[in-house]
Amino acid sequence: MGYLLLANEKIFKGSLCGAGANRPVIGELVFTTQMTGFLETLTDPSYFGQIVLQTFPLVGNYGVIEEDFESAGVHLSGYIAREICDEPSNFRSSGGVAEFLKKQGKIGLTGVDTREITKIIREQGAINAAVCPEDPRKLPEEEYAGLLKEIREYSVDSPVLKATSDKIEFFAASAEYDKPFNVAFWDFGAKGGIIRSLTARGCGVTSFPAGTGAEELLRKNPDGIMLSNGPGDPKDNEPIVAEIKKAAAAKIPIFGICLGHQLLARAFGAGTEKLKYGHRGANHPVADLETGRLYITSQNHGYTVSGDTLSPKFGRVTMINDHDGTCEGITYSAAPAFSAQFHPEACAGPRDTAFLFEKFISLMKEKR
To answer: Which residues are tagged catalytic?
Structure first.
């Protein structure tokens, strides 16, 4: 048995899977609506410190496939699904999700009413929770009160610095490119798919940890700078924002994705704010304000750029979310830079927004 205890004291009973736990595992509880891509979710560093709930009722039917991972391991704190398939069927599979969670030291919970939990998050907003190995209602009163306090006060300190790589790495461009572009990749907790999208288009990518200064990046004489996705509140990264501002002043082409989009906006003076329950899934419609076209996108973020706080002298909002009107894309006039809140590498359309990588390549060509 296992239990999910929400900060509002609602409790859901299920079955534990994955790694065992001697005490409750606490995190921010979020949901993702995608029907596939559970491996990408499990290995996406942007979920660092969160308990992720899958709204789709069955997870794991095509097993664990290492080639599809977005990073080397699991970064989320806990994983919840209505049902996890015990016998996956796929010629590429090397095992099941429950076994994978166990190997990664991560707790899972199945058999709970994921629809009801999702409705609570949608109605009340983002909420902290704990996956508990024992019924929390049976704890002594003082211990239960202490657990609730810990849940309600939970936050992750410096998640970007915890999710980023700890070393500089180089990824070579695909062999057919004779004169690859030199891209400096700022890793804030990056998905591997972004790097693969760059190398496939003729970019040699040097990945730098999040704490790297702009001066060190610029010493590599990059043709362009990529700002990656990552976890947490963009407001908690002001030292990084200051370095991005320095990099932007060098007038080198910059492309920001997800958290990178938010940090770039903050470098140009725009504000950011927390969404009620975030955008997480593979079917979010985004409207291009310049062409009128609608794109289906993959998203994973709990914060958004406040588009009306961006000064027209620096840039303009070029894409918005067709559901709630939040900012999804910015093109800058003060620098050869642009950004997207969604993930253009993630095949939601399936390749509707991959043209943004071509746009980045074009900017670098112009700069050469």
So the answer is: 258, 343, 345
